[in-house]
Amino acid sequence: MTTAKTHKLPVRAAISLTKSKSWRHYPIGLSLILIIPLCLLLGFGFVYPVGRLLGQSFFAPDFGLDNYRRLLETPLYLRVLGRTVIVALIVMAASLALGYPVALAMARLRRDLAGVVMACVLLPLWTSALVRSYAWIVILQRRGLVNDVLLGLGVISEPLKLIYTEGAVILAMTHVLVPFMILPIFGAIRAIPTELVQAARNLGAGQFTVFARILLPLSLPGIFAGCLMTFILALGFYVTPALVGGPSSLLMATLIGQQTTETLDWGFAGALSTVLLCVTLVIVVCFRKALSNNRGISNVA
Fold it and tell me: Where is the ABC transmembrane type-1 domain (predicted)?
């Protein structure tokens, strides 16, 4: 009897919500008018371009799977795809290693000091990625800051090749994407009640035990969100790899850009985009399933 009443409570709550004035505060026509601009922007700015590009992968030049067959039969394109996934994973791991201590320090600092650190984290987001990429070119070029310092200290006898390498791409992409890792983790750590940490310390837990048993498990939703955003952004990053990377560090986004701007092969560019989209979805689903058994991850959208 109690179970039946319990199941009826959500239904009664939904019925009372539909009968309340707040539910019908706006007429249906006005609500549709309010969402039409957003739907049009989403349709013309995202759905239509992506749908047309994916359609051209099957219909250019003729209907068929020639573009996908070309992609699978050419080892170069498969190597580029594999390199893109590996670079994205490395950037994600580097951003997590650099971002988690910063987020933890921000959560433990006083409000005024935390605001200063937050401003330092947000400052790169206010600067164009193009400007930051050119700054790395100035720093890593043969007569750049790093080589000049090493030459001045006598560590090296001739300039090192630091720019236009895969390491330069990973370094520059990590610098650009690390704020997207810090902010979700900071929000997750700030949401942890301080009473839990105080109770653990009163019971004799040390710093490492508090971190391993309380802070890290409860901050997993923020870690998952930051890793997901950083990984997806790294997979489709274009500006930084195009400027800092060389032919040996070609990524999928740069390859797609070459197909659309230089060779004008829109059909093959659509096939590359479709494969990259499918790989992204598969990796995200696998990543979600792998972490879904951890506490708190199952509640992350």
Answer: 81-287
Residues 268 and 192 sit within 8 Å (Cβ to Cβ): no
> Considering the domain boundaries, does residue 103 fall inside one?
yes
Q: Is residue 115 part of a domain?
A: yes
- pTM listed for this prediction: 0.79
- pLDDT of 271-292, one tens digit each? 888 888 888 888 888 877 776 6
